[in-house]
Amino acid sequence: MSVIKANNIHKTYTETAVPVHALNGVTLSVEEGEFTAIVGPSGCGKTTLLNILGGLDTPTEGTVEVANTDITGMNDNQLINFRLQNIGFVFQAYNLIPVLTNKENVEFIMLLQKWPRQEREQRAMELLAQMGIADKANQRPSELSGGQQQRVAVARALASKPKFILADEPTANLDSKSTANLLDMMAQLNKEEQATFVFSTHDQRVIDKARRVITLEDGKIVADITR
Amino acid sequence: MYLTLAWRNIWRNKRRSLITIVSIAFAVLLACVMRSLQLGSYNRMIENAARFYTGYIQVHKNGYWADKTLENSFVNDTGLLAMIDRIAGVEVAVPRLESFALASYGTKTKGALVLGVEPEREDLLTRARSKVVAGAYLQAHDKAVLVAAGLANYLKLGVGDTLVLIGQGFHGANAAGVYPVKGILKFPVPTQNNQTVFLPLKEAQWFYAADNRLTSIALVVDKAKNVDRIVAGISANVDPAALEVMGWRELMPDLVQGIEIDNISGKVMLGVLYAVIGFGMFGTFLMMTAERMYEFGVMMSVGMTRLRMQFVIFLEMGLMAALAVVAGIGLSLPVLVYYHHNPIYFTGDSARAIESFGIEAAYFFSLEPSLFYNQAWAIFFMAFILGFYPLLVIQRLKPVQAMRDAL
Fold first, then answer.
1. What is the domain extent for residue A65?
2. CA B44 to CA A201: how far, in whole Å?
3. What residues of A are in contact with residue B303 (Cβ under 8 Å)?
4. In A, which residues are within 8 Å of B316 by CB distance?
5. How do residues B133-169 score in pLDDT, each as one tens digit?
6. ipTM of the complex as predicted
7. Euclidean distance between CA atoms B169 and B211, whole angstroms
8. Does B395 contact chain A (CB < 8 Å)?
9. Best mutation site among B7, B10, B298, B302 for testing chain A: the one with the most A CBs within 10 Å?
């Protein structure tokens, strides 16, 4: 079953003197449980595509369906709610809320989804344990290493049981050991919980782990390989 | 968790938040002290004036207020006093007969306000007994006078000396009398202290040939806010063509106007103070917003609605304002309570300089609740208005752009 269907996506930025065509007719679909990497050189449109698939940005042309729902016609508030209920995000710079503890960061999405306190505390602790950082639950993100912070970010992304997780260059700021650990963990989640991951990356280690690699160049898909 | 988030966000930049909170608290402290001093002084002026010149309410013959002569006196009807005494809120009704006469002792003579009073009732209004600094207070049957200290000094007389009074009585009759000085009174207000002579009412009526006549009945009421009701109550029971009933605002229009003008200037000063503080608050809110654009973008990306973010920011501003208000009022309270019970009295040249304006040379402080909650409202109102900026920024926020611009 397709979790994401993108059909003929175009994105043109007109804020600059010369319009920039970031995406030029991208069509793809992502099935449930996939572990997909979108790769390509800088400026090829990876982040733009991810933003559009995640409902953070709107295409100039084309449609995006997530779990059989067309999100391209949604207004801002509908999109925020849709992201909250359906999509998990992992960012390059972790983007945890610095004033909350790691456990509270994981709970945060569930709080927005109005989970009962006890349930969200329990799930947050389970996820942190799964990520191997349960002992850091009551510390602030600033007290953790980059790799550990990214694991909290993954736990946060998974907390609300989203349809899929979008990860924008998740390993860009990590050393090789942390990268390996994080990738192993995500691969395990993908395998055990059928969590769907879509990465944008140019990190070869991520590309090596991915079972499907979509290559973008100049805003177009030039290769789509499933291994 | 929203409250936790807001609280912790305040302390992200401890130094900046503390500076903001302390500056607002200091403004609240200043504003409280300033307003307390103003309101305290106004209350004292009103009380001084009401308790000496007029009472909080006065009943007199129609026309007396415009032309204060004995010809505008009225017959002391005991039924009138009894009716006034029965009205709820009236603590005491004080009958008086007053006019001017020349007061003379030795080679010195000076114009004096000769007040015929019932000593016991008068004491309840003017607390005259407590103002006796030499000799003794009057009794109703005395044929003696109390002289204000300033006048006594001018005439160079003391207790036991004899004061000569010469003036014009009712219907142009000659008024002349010789009275022993039973006591010296010290009034705080210089104009009172330099010209007042107290005579027992019966003796004053004899002196002025105004048998059983009064120029006014001054009233003490339980609460100033009851004045209008009591005025209406008395007015309904007297012949409006014969008698006039006036509240203290009508009785002291100059004082009311003076207070209003001073009050406005005080409020302008307060406005300037708050405007300065407002810029400081706005600067903090501006920084709090600008440095978190990326974070706002992330929060919106992961599904936090604008309304929730605005709520958190609103909580942050509200908490900061509340902390500052509590600190400001907390700091001002002990100071104001102390000075409310221990007014600052001036002495020497500065006292004389202030007294030359006819004002009691002292600072009085009020503890009216309104002066505290008005500062709180002012701060919260400012926070509310200034807070529109971050709320507007969030309302217009596009998550991708916010994250991109912040990098």
1. 2-226
2. 78
3. 80-81, 83-85, 109, 112-113, 160
4. none
5. 999 999 999 999 999 999 999 999 999 999 999 999 9
6. 0.83
7. 11
8. no
9. B302
